[in-house]
UniProtKB/TrEMBL annotation:
Residues 1-27 form the signal peptide. This is RraA family protein. It comes from Rhodocytophaga aerolata. Keywords: Signal. InterPro entries: RraA/RraA-like, RraA/RraA-like_sf. It comes from the Bacteria. The keyword Signal applies. Gene3D superfamilies: Ribonuclease E inhibitor RraA/RraA-like.
Amino acid sequence: MNHPLMKQLSFFSTVFLFLLFSTSLRAQSVALPKESITGFTAQWKGERFPDGRPKVPDNILERMKDVSLENAWSVVRGAGYNNQFAGDWQMIHPDQVMVGRALTAQYMPKRPDVEDKLIANGKKEGRIGGTNSWPIDMLSTGDIYVADAYGKIADGTLIGDNLGNSIYAKSKNGVVFDGAVRDLEGLSKIEGFNAFVRGFHPSFIAETMLTGVNVPIQIGPATVLPGDIVLAKKGGILFVPAHLAETVVQTSEVITLRDEFGHMRLKEGKYTPGQIDTRWSKEIEADFAKWLDANPGKLKMTRAQMDELLKTRTW
């Protein structure tokens, strides 16, 4: 069994059995089973929702709102996640930042035999209303409803203002749809709600079916897992893997502090641009540490956490 080929065959057998098990369970439910979500997001070691999604702490979500897309992208890409950004959105409130945990949904062009089976399974589970409302019923505070609607605009409107009000009541957040919404005027009146979509259209949803909830989905060029942290800003959306969320926040906060310190010292003329715009000398690092000691409220993590972060930095 120690032969490399046998190890490889064993690995593929394990993956096949996992997928077979997941498919068997999916046949009984529209939502991906908890065990499968946990398997896909195994690198997350913290608390989880009952549905299996990673539950990144609220304070990390709040701090993420101040993170720039550029800083977050650098950390995520540096960790080997090269397909997490999607741009070219239309927004209800372009200057309103949206951060939350992804609750994912997948839609496909309607096929009656498939849709009939999915609706029947949903009814057995006690789901009510149109299928586009089923993901909404599963939302929790801090979630963002993220849907792959294959870019459909006309007849691809997943929600209007009625469902928009329900979404905000449950999540205190908004939506990201690779598709469209209707009732723009009504949605824009929901205070705190935002939507990042491919377009707005007056039509009702038609010839589109829900095929999965809390499943891995594609949003533009990005792969999104349930529980990913959605960082949505005017410049686009970054889907941060849950296990990288705290690192993204802490790294961005340190970069911001170092920039503030560097700019201040440049204005004072204490250091030259060449000294600041490169790897700092021990003298500058010591000066920075003294500045932090004099301004303890600026650092939102422990000094030990910051020092550990600085050991592995590539910036």
